[in-house]
Specification:
By secondary structure, the protein is of the alpha+beta class. It has a single domain, classed as Alpha-Beta Plaits (2-Layer Sandwich). The chain has two helices and six strands, in the order E-E-E-H-E-E-H-E. The protein has a four-stranded antiparallel β-sheet, with helices on one face. A hairpin with a 6-residue loop joins strand 4 and strand 5. Helix 1 runs antiparallel to helix 2. The longest helix is centred in the middle third of the chain and has 18 residues. The chain is elongated, with a radius of gyration of 18 Å.
Amino acid sequence: MSLTGRAGVISGFRLWVADMHVMVGSIELLLPGAGSLKEKRHVVKSIVGRIRSRVNASVAETEFQDVWQRSVIGVAMVSSDRQLLDKQVSIIRTIVDDNAAAETVEFLFEYV
């Protein structure tokens, strides 16, 4: 196993900074069957919970909290392995696409 990164010295302390990859994403959803905020939140909470349980990510509804049929879910992940992050994005896409109550309007992920 090899470690990549860089070493440095700050105020007499030796530090090791490993390579770190940060991925952030935004998932915009349309929920045509939601007739109330309660129904919408049930669907969104289900998707957010599945993402959290399947991948190690921070997940939250970030926009349209008071709109019945729209939602934006924000996702952030950090890893030293870029391939792992790519695989996690694929898992997230599958989770979102498998939910029959929500239609994906936009699915954007990028490295920061």
